[in-house]
Design goal:
Length: 235
């Protein structure tokens, strides 16, 4: 299987994490959306929406939309609850993510990470809606570790938030100190950072440190990927 993606994109990382978690083999095709990588004729044949991620199955059939890809890849695994009601609850979160979380959180991340905008230049309406989404997650996770039932599911993976180190004081930072370490702590259920670093080392500049960063920060681990810094809290 091939995955066309950009490691700065949360939607692409969602798919990547599912593959890594389930040890599914794949070839990562780095696609730079800022230089038209998702607008070439070849790419548009795979996804006429011109967006990553796209998975191309071994028989050549393409599949887009991060949550659809995750759902396909994780079929039959523990990442999708066996119980029909619980599965529907997972889907409830996935739809909510696309409508009420991703358009705001991902948009802010895009502006900061891709366009290099300072926090002060972010669209305040989007920041506000992003806050609201994270606040709801914090509330839901107050007394439990997972969004659905008592096990990790695609809902948790879809709603993970990565906060680039450069924006640790940014609009989303205050959620890092939430109950259970906040939504950030979920990352550790999904990503084995050592294995991820080893896997990515072939195609990416990737370094993992376990030094406390920075002094007084809630974060305990740092992953450097293609020059972008991702911080994680060990959950
Ligand atoms: N709902 C889609 C969103 C995909 C999406 O917005 N992809 C962005 C990167 S995160 C992209 O490819 N943008 C390039 C463009 O729209 O030209 C999903 O979940 O896969």
């Amino acid at each position: 299987m091939k995955i066309y993606g950009d490691t700065k994109s949360g939607n692409c990382l969602k798919v990547k994490w599912v593959c890594d978690k389930l040890a599914l083999p794949y070839i990562w095709i780095a696609t730079d959306i800022m230089t038209g990588g998702s607008r070439t004729l070849e790419f548009l044949r795979l996804n006429s929406a011109g967006q990553v991620p796209v998975a191309v199955l071994d028989d050549g059939r393409p599949l887009s939309q991060s949550n659809a890809i995750m759902r396909y890849l994780a079929r039959g695994s523990a990442l999708i609850p066996a119980d029909a009601y619980q599965t529907a609850k997972m889907d409830e979160w996935l739809f909510w993510e696309q409508y009420s979380h991703e358009p705001f959180i991902a948009a802010c991340r895009f502006d900061m990470l891709y366009l290099g905008k300072p926090v002060s230049d972010l669209d305040s309406a989007k920041v506000k809606r992003g806050y609201a989404a994270l606040a709801r997650m914090e509330h839901e996770l107050k007394d439990r570790r997972f969004l659905v039932g008592d096990a990790l599911s695609l809902a948790d993976i879809s709603l993970l938030v990565l906060e680039p180190a450069d924006h640790a004081n940014g609009p989303l930072a205050r959620f890092a100190n939430g109950p259970n370490g906040g939504v950030y702590a979920l990352a550790w259920h999904v990503v084995d950072p050592q294995a991820t670093a080893a896997r990515l080392a072939d195609n990416h500049t990737c370094r993992l440190t376990a030094e406390p960063v920075p002094a007084g920060s809630h974060y305990t681990h740092e992953l450097l990927l293609d020059g972008a810094r991702h911080w994680f809290v060990k959950g």
